[in-house]
Design a protein that fits this description.
The protein is mainly alpha-helical and about 70 residues long. Helix content is about 50%, strand content about 0%.
């Protein structure tokens, strides 16, 4: 596989994960996005590092539809 093939696979895996999260209700999604211990499942108290905490999904959707912010 080429570097481009690996990038394509990773991108599609990330999109698949995002689609799965979108199917959850807000409470379950928040719980699924919490950092947890891989052994016991307890919260670690850390924030996910791959998430932009200042991102506003509602504003993004408005801008995506062409509305003014």
């Amino acid at each position: 596989m080429t570097h481009r093939d690996y990038l394509w696979c990773v991108l599609n895996l990330m999109l698949d994960d995002e689609e799965e999260l979108e199917r959850l209700c807000p409470a379950c999604r928040a719980r699924a996005e919490e950092e947890r211990c891989p052994v016991c499942g307890a919260r670690t108290g850390r924030e996910r590092e791959d998430r932009n905490l200042s991102f506003d999904p509602e504003r993004f959707q408005r801008l995506k539809r062409g509305e003014r912010a």
